[in-house]
From TrEMBL:
GO CC annotation, single: plasma membrane
UniProt cross-references to InterPro entries, sorted A to Z: LipA_acyltrans
Taxonomic lineage from the root: Bacteria, Pseudomonadati, Pseudomonadota, Gammaproteobacteria, SAR86 cluster
Keywords associated with the record: Acyltransferase, Cell inner membrane, Cell membrane, Membrane, Transferase
Name under which the protein is recorded: Lipid A biosynthesis acyltransferase
Length: 276
């Protein structure tokens, strides 16, 4: 189906998610209230409704992201910004850590940014074996290597960086207690991965962050990519992790409504209290 048809269905779905009480709506509102306390109740409601519509758009777009021929998937990106600096950094020998937050459609972003580039993406294997096979098949198109979220996968990422390649991670997932540290994310304490900071220290890699943003009128996507904030390179783990979240915040602010606000980002709390 054309994007405009998929997005039309998604908007109906998003409106339904807003109208009927459900976990996605409740979590979206709670996250937005916490992260944007300066916004009025009406502004939060409007933003939450837009967010749910965009979440539905992401789900409806997955067929295109996974199943279309590679060239057709890549053609969905009609504009780019900042990709020249990313390609210039590829000429170095340090390797690149590419952060891809849950913003816009990260599947389309990954396929497009990895064109002609030796890339390894870390991924969480799903519990369903059939879905796992589909993800491996679709995400590995164009020569992308996949690294599981375990010690073996981390070693795979480090070796790729040492070869001067690109490794991609989703930086805004809640890690295990052993692999995370609390840091501010839009003013709220969020358990944040330390893996990026540790990879930087062991490889001296450059860090970029990017996403594809849905364009108005279902006219495709704009790919945006920028270098991470300087704090992420700090040798102090606490400052580096804080820099990671600041980098993601900047990415989110490019299109707040296209971030995946229904994800329970603050489910782990430093004081152990219940957030949701």
């Amino acid at each position: 189906m054309p994007l405009r048809v998929l997005h039309g269905i998604a908007h109906l779905w998003g409106n339904l998610l807003w109208a009927i009480p459900n976990r996605a709506r409740d979590t979206t509102i709670r996250n937005l209230q916490a992260c944007f306390p300066q916004k009025s109740k009406a502004e939060i409601s409007s933003l939450a409704k837009d967010s749910l519509r965009n979440t539905a758009c992401t789900a409806m777009e997955m067929g295109k992201a996974w199943l279309l021929p590679l060239a057709d998937t890549m053609s969905l990106v009609t504009e780019t910004e900042g990709i020249e600096a990313f390609h210039e950094a590829l000429s170095g020998k340090e390797g690149i850590i590419l952060l891809a937050p849950h913003q816009g459609n990260w599947e389309i972003f990954g396929v497009h940014i990895a064109k002609g580039v030796d890339t390894t993406f870390m991924y969480q294997p799903p519990k369903l074996s059939g879905l796992d096979r589909l993800l491996k098949e679709r995400r590995s198109r164009g020569g992308i290597a996949l690294a599981p979220t375990n010690r073996k996968g981390v070693a795979q990422l480090l070796k790729a960086l040492q070869r001067g390649e690109v490794v991609g991670l989703l930086p805004d997932q809640v890690p295990t207690s052993e692999g995370g540290q609390f840091a501010s994310f839009f003013g709220e304490q969020a358990l944040t991965m330390t893996l990026v900071s540790k990879l930087i220290q062991r490889s001296k890699a450059k860090v970029f962050c990017g996403h594809v943003q849905r364009l108005p009128g279902s006219q495709g996507f704009k790919l945006l990519i920028t270098e991470a904030v300087p704090e992420i390179y700090s040798e102090q783990l606490e400052e580096s992790v804080r820099g990671l979240n600041q980098t993601v915040e900047q990415c989110v602010m490019e299109a707040v409504e296209q971030y995946q606000w229904e994800y329970k980002r603050f489910r782990r709390r430093p004081d152990g209290e219940k957030f949701y």
